Amino acid sequence: MKLIIAIVQDEDASRLIGSMMNEGFSVTKLATTGGFLKSGNTTLLTGVEDDRCQACLHVIENVCKSRKQIATSPVTMGGSSGMYASYPIEVTLGGATVFVMTVDQFAKY
Ligand code: 2BA
Ligand code: 2BA
Questions:
Q1: Which residues contact 74 (CB under 8 A, 6 or more apart)?
Q2: Which residue has the least CA distance to atom 7 on ligand 1?
Q3: What is the DSSP letter of 52?
Q4: H or E element at residue 97
Q5: Among 2, 40, 41, 72, which residue is least crowded by beta carbons within 10 Å?
Q6: Residue 37: predicted pLDDT
Q7: Do 39 and 31 touch, CB atoms closer than 8 A?
């Protein structure tokens, strides 16, 4: 069995969960926050049998779209001045950041 951890954009989360459920995958949704943008994203946990893992990854790939976003990043003005200024940067948010892990044990009590 594999555990798929997919970090996706909030905008795609509902549609992705719907598509995964339609394909027979169980999903657990976590509300998470990206460390860089410090804004919300969604992490989905899905435990799947090995032979269904690729099918699940295809669903994620098909639903999740990458988007460009303008973010504000703080930058230090001078070494010891302690001053900060903000400047806009464009980041490309990936459709999904996915980790696949082998599950040692799966149990429901
Ligand atoms: P839910 O997805 O909200 O599912 C709650 C309960 O509804 C499930 O209990 C199951 O009895 C039933 N259920 C789920 N999908 C169904 C379907 N397609 N048709 C009919 N009944 C369905 P549990 O199996 O004990 O799961 C409890 C919670 O544990 C789930 O909440 C989900 O958040 C998580 N979960 C279970 N299996 C998972 C897996 N393989 N991967 C990720 N999360 C899982
Ligand atoms: P955030 O950390 O908020 O990052 C959002 C987007 O900002 C990233 O999109 C990337 O395009 C950009 N970015 C991140 N760190 C950067 C940096 N140091 N310099 C310049 N740009 C940077 P994605 O790569 O698609 O990541 C989307 C979200 O997925 C991330 O949100 C984070 O929550 C998660 N993530 C991505 N890679 C991860 C990893 N290796 N481990 C854990 N979480 C990860």
A1: 84, 85, 86
A2: 26
A3: G
A4: strand 96-102
A5: 72
A6: 87
A7: no
In this structure, of 37-41, 91-95, 104-108, the range with the lowest mean pLDDT score is 91-95
7 alpha carbon – ligand 2 mean position (Å): 10
**Alpha-carbon gap, residue 33 to 44, rounded angstroms:** 13
- The burial class, CB within 10 Å (0-12 / 13-18 / 19+), for 34 is middle
Q: Give me 89's structure tokens.
A: 């940067």
**Which ligand 1 atom minimizes the distance to the CA of 3?**
41
Q: Token pair of 42, please?
A: 């969604």
- Contact 93 CB / ligand 2 (< 6 Å): yes
| Closest Cα to atom 5 of ligand 1 | 26
Q: Say which residue the tokens 């990854």 belong to.
A: 57
pTM of the model: 0.92
